[in-house]
Write a structure and sequence with these properties.
Keywords: Glycosidase, Hydrolase, Signal. By secondary structure, this protein is mainly β. Strand 42 and strand 43 (550-558) form a beta hairpin.
C-alpha cells in the first residue's frame, strides 16, 4: 500500500521561530578508484593543492566504444549535454575554440568521415583522431583548402569553406552544413550568390537565408563582390574543392578539428609561449590526448570556481602527460571547458565538472564517446540513491532507484524487484520515476550498516548503505530565495547527525508550514520539496520544517531589492586594462564612467579584444545577493559586456549581456551564487571576438548594484516538539 504524503500549510510568524540558517550540505567524498561508465571507458577524479580539480576520461584500446565528433551544424552551438544525450554518448568534452558571440562556428578546420566541412586556403593546424590496429591514435597536421569557383566562365580562387570571417577581396563557399548562421556577420557588406543545380538562382546581400540542401552559397567581399554584382540569374557555376589534410591518413573515417596549441609530442612537453595571457592564465582547460598503448584521453581541469582555481597551459600539459599521453592538444577553455558523463543507470549525461560560467555553455561541437549498440537485455542492475549519499536516518526515509543496465551501461527494459539484503532498514514502493524505473523509499530503523538487493531475471545489483545516528540538524540544501510571484524552487531537505554525517531526507517525511500569502510547499515524487512564490512584492518570511522530532525555522524571501555596491562615478577608483586594444576612463554626467575603447590598434592579430575597468580595491557584494546589476548606455557597436567576480576566493567570469546593441540606458543583471560566503567585483569589461567587427566607441556605466533577497534577520532556537502524526 502506497503511503499518502500530507503537507500542512499554515500561517507562520517570525516570532519565536528564530534559528541559525542551516549550513549548506558538505560535498560528498570523491571516490578513490575510477568509475566505469561503459565497457572500456573509465572516469577518474582527482584534486591537487591549489586547489585544482580535474576529471580524466580514458577510452581503452580495443573497446567497442568509439570517439565521435558531434555537432548539429557548423553554426548551431549546443551544450555538450544536449549533443551527448541525443547521440547516446557516455562522456563528452567541448571541442575547438569558436566564434562565441556571432556565428557560433569553430575557429579551426573540421574534417568528418574524410570530407572537409570547414577549411581555409591559409594553412591551419588540426588534430585528427582515427582508429588503428593497436588502438586510438592522434595526429597533428595542417589542413589547407585548394579550390576555385567558376562563375559565368570566370574562375575565382576560394579563400575558405564555411568560415567565420570572409577575408578582404575574397570568395568563400558555404555548403548546407553551414546551418542557420547569419552570413552577414562574416563580412562587412559584400554579396552572395545562391547556386542550385549548377546555376545562380539569387544574387543578394549576405544574410540568414539557409543554404539550399541541393546547392551552395558563394559569399564575396570587396573587389570580388563588385566583380560579381552584375551576375545574371541562370549563370553557370562550377566548383573545384580539394583539401590537403595531414591530420588524418588517406582513406580515414575519423575526424579532425582545430588544434590551436599542441601540448605533448612524442611523450614530451612542447614549448608554450607563457607570455601569451591565453596560455599563462589560471583557467578551466580541456585537452585530448593519446597513449602509446592506444588509449584515448579526455581531460578537463575545472577552473574559476570556489573549489578549483584552474591551470595554465603548461600545467595542463603536465597533467595529461602524467596520465600517460604521448601526444595531446589543447581544446577550448574558460567557460567553454566542460565535461559531461553518464552515470550507469542514468538515461542522460550530467556535468562532471562545474563550468566556470556557472552553467552549461553552448559550443560549436563536442568530442564524445559513444558505445557500440548492445542487446536490450539487462546484464546488471544499478541501485543508486536519488539524492545525496547512501545513508538514512532512523525513523526517516531516503529514496533509491533501481535501473537495469545493458552491456553498454544504458538503461534496459524491465522492472527489478528491490528488497532488504541486510541491516535494520525497511523498503516501501514509491512507483516508477520519470524514466519508468522503480523507486523505493528506504526507512532507517537502527543505526548501523545495511544493504539492498535488486534482481531482474539473472541480472542483480547491490547497494551498501548506512543508517546514521538520529538526526540533530535539518535544513534545505540552498537558500530559500525566489525571484518573483509564480517562481518555483526545488530543494533537497538535508539532515545531519551528531557526528556531522549528512543524508537527504524524503520531503514526504517533512512537515512543512509556510505563510500561504507568501509561499506554498509541495512534496515531489523524487523526494525534493517544491516551494512556489505567491507574493507579488519583495517580502521576507520563515518556513518551518519538522522531521525526526526536530522543528526548525528557515529564512525565506520572495523578490529582491537593489543595494548599491558602487556608483561608478570616480574614475580614480578604477584602472584600465586592455588586450589588443586601447582604452580610457573618464567621469561623465549621470554620474557615470565612460569607457572609451579602440579595438582597431591591432586589426589583423587573431584573438579577442577587450577593454576593462579594473577595481583598484575589489568591491564587496552583500552576502546572499542573487544578482549583480549595472546600468549601461551603449553606443550601438554590439560588444560583449562581461565582468570578473571573485567567489569564495576564486575568480570567475560573468556575462551581463551577450551584445550591447542599443544606444539608450539599460540595466543588465548577471546571476550570482546565493550560497557564496564572499563575492568581490574585480573588473567590468567589453569584449569583441570578431576581427571583422573591431571598431572604436564608448560605453557609459553607472550604478553597480546587488539584487538582494530581503531575508529575515535574527537568530534563536526552536523548542523540540513531537513529530506531527500522519
Amino acid at each position: 500500500m502506497r503511503r499518502r504524503t500530507v503537507l500542512s500549510i499554515a500561517t507562520l510568524s517570525a516570532s519565536g521561530l528564530l534559528v541559525p540558517a542551516p549550513t549548506p550540505a558538505r560535498a560528498l567524498a570523491v571516490p578513490d578508484g575510477p568509475e566505469t561508465l561503459a565497457p572500456g571507458v573509465t572516469l577518474e577524479r582527482s584534486t591537487s593543492p591549489g586547489p585544482v580539480r580535474q576529471v580524466l576520461v580514458r577510452l581503452a584500446a580495443g573497446s567497442s566504444t568509439r570517439p565521435v565528433l558531434l555537432q548539429r551544424t557548423l553554426s548551431s552551438p549546443r551544450t555538450p549535454a544536449e549533443l551527448a544525450t541525443a547521440a547516446g554518448a557516455v562522456a563528452a568534452v567541448n571541442g575547438d575554440f569558436f566564434d562565441i558571440d556571432r556565428t557560433g562556428t569553430p575557429d579551426g578546420p573540421v574534417v568528418l568521415d574524410g570530407r572537409a566541412l570547414k577549411a581555409s586556403a591559409e594553412p591551419q593546424w588540426a588534430v585528427g583522431l582515427d582508429a588503428g590496429p593497436d588502438g586510438w591514435r592522434g595526429r597533428v597536421g595542417r589542413v589547407v583548402l585548394q579550390g576555385s569557383a567558376t562563375v559565368a566562365g570566370r574562375p575565382f580562387p576560394l579563400a575558405a569553406l564555411c568560415t567565420r570571417t570572409v577575408p578582404p577581396d575574397a570568395l568563400v563557399l558555404f555548403g548546407p552544413e553551414w546551418g542557420a548562421g547569419d552570413r552577414s556577420l562574416t563580412t562587412a557588406g559584400g554579396l552572395e550568390l545562391e547556386v542550385r543545380g549548377g546555376t545562380v538562382t539569387a544574387v543578394r546581400p549576405p544574410g540568414p537565408d539557409p543554404v539550399p540542401g541541393d546547392g551552395v552559397v558563394l559569399v564575396a567581399s570587396g573587389t570580388l563582390a563588385a566583380a560579381l554584382a552584375g551576375t545574371p540569374l541562370g549563370s553557370a557555376v562550377t566548383t573545384d574543392v580539394r583539401v590537403l589534410d595531414d591530420a588524418l591518413p588517406p582513406g580515414s573515417t575519423g575526424f579532425a578539428v582545430g588544434a590551436r596549441l599542441e601540448l605533448v609530442r612524442d611523450g614530451a612537453l612542447t614549448p608554450v609561449d607563457e607570455a601569451d595571457p591565453t596560455w599563462a592564465a589560471l583557467r578551466a582547460r580541456t585537452a585530448v590526448g593519446w597513449t602509446a598503448a592506444g588509449d584515448l584521453l579526455l581531460l578537463t581541469v575545472e577552473g574559476g570556481t570556489s573549489r578549483s582555481r584552474g591551470a595554465t597551459a603548461v600545467q595542463t600539459a603536465r597533467r595529461v602527460l602524467d596520465a600517460g599521453a604521448v601526444g595531446a592538444v589543447m581544446l577550448d577553455g574558460g567557460g567553454s571547458a566542460q565535461l559531461v558523463a553518464r552515470t550507469p543507470g542514468d538515461a542522460t549525461v550530467s556535468e562532471a565538472v562545474v563550468p566556470s560560467d556557472g552553467g552549461a555553455r553552448p559550443v560549436a561541437h563536442v568530442l564524445a564517446l559513444v558505445p557500440a549498440p548492445a542487446g536490450p537485455q539487462a546484464r546488471t542492475v544499478a541501485l543508486r540513491p536519488v539524492r545525496g549519499a547512501a545513508a538514512v536516518f532512523p525513523g526517516l526515509s531516503t529514496l533509491v532507484r533501481a535501473v537495469p543496465l545493458t552491456a553498454s551501461g544504458a538503461p534496459a527494459a524491465g522492472t527489478p524487484l528491490v528488497g532488504v539484503a541486510a541491516g535494520a532498514v525497511a523498503v516501501e514502493d514509491r512507483g516508477p520515476d520519470e524514466a519508468g524505473h522503480p523507486r523505493v523509499a528506504v526507512r532507517g530503523l537502527t543505526p548501523g550498516p545495511a544493504s539492498l538487493r535488486a534482481t531482474l531475471g539473472t541480472a542483480t545489483g547491490v547497494l551498501a548503505l548506512r543508517v546514521l545516528d538520529p538526526v540533530t540538524g535539518l535544513g534545505p540544501d540552498r537558500p530559500l530565495t525566489l525571484p518573483a510571484a509564480g517562481a518555483t524552487l526545488d530543494v533537497v531537505v538535508t539532515g545531519r547527525d551528531a557526528a556531522g554525517r549528512e543524508a537527504a531526507v524524503d520531503a514526504g517525511d517533512v512537515h512543512v508550514r509556510t505563510d500561504p500569502d507568501v509561499l506554498t510547499a509541495q512534496a515531489l515524487p523524487d523526494g525534493r520539496l517544491r516551494l512556489t512564490a505567491v507574493a507579488a512584492t519583495p517580502v521576507s518570511t520563515w518556513v518551518r520544517m519538522s522531521a525526526g522530532g526536530l522543528d526548525r525555522a528557515v529564512p525565506a524571501a520572495v523578490g529582491t531589492r537593489p543595494v548599491p555596491v558602487d556608483p561608478l562615478s570616480d574614475p580614480g577608483a578604477w584602472a584600465v586594462a586592455t588586450v589588443r586594444a586601447a582604452a580610457t576612463v573618464t567621469a561623465v554626467e549621470g554620474p557615470a564612467l565612460r569607457l572609451a575603447f579602440d579595438f582597431t590598434v591591432r586589426p589583423a592579430e587573431p584573438g579577442t579584444t577587450t577593454a576593462a575597468l579594473v577595481a583598484r580595491v575589489p568591491l564587496a557584494v552583500p552576502r546572499g545577493a542573487t544578482g549583480l546589476a549595472v546600468s549601461v548606455r551603449g553606443d550601438g557597436a554590439g560588444g560583449w559586456l562581461r565582468g570578473v567576480v571573485r567567489v569564495d576566493g576564486a575568480s570567475r567570469p560573468v556575462t551581463f549581456a551577450p551584445r550591447v546593441g542599443v544606444t539608450g540606458w539599460q540595466r543588465f543583471v548577471t546571476e550570482l551564487p546565493a550560497t557564496a560566503r564572499e563575492v568581490l567585483v574585480e573588473r567590468l569589461y567589453l569584449a569583441q571576438t570578431s576581427t571583422a567587427a573591431r571598431g572604436r566607441g564608448a560605453l557609459d556605466l553607472a550604478r553597480l548594484e546587488a539584487d538582494l533577497p530581503p531575508l529575515p534577520a535574527g537568530t534563536g532556537t526552536v523548542p523540540r516538539r513531537p513529530r506531527p502524526r500522519r
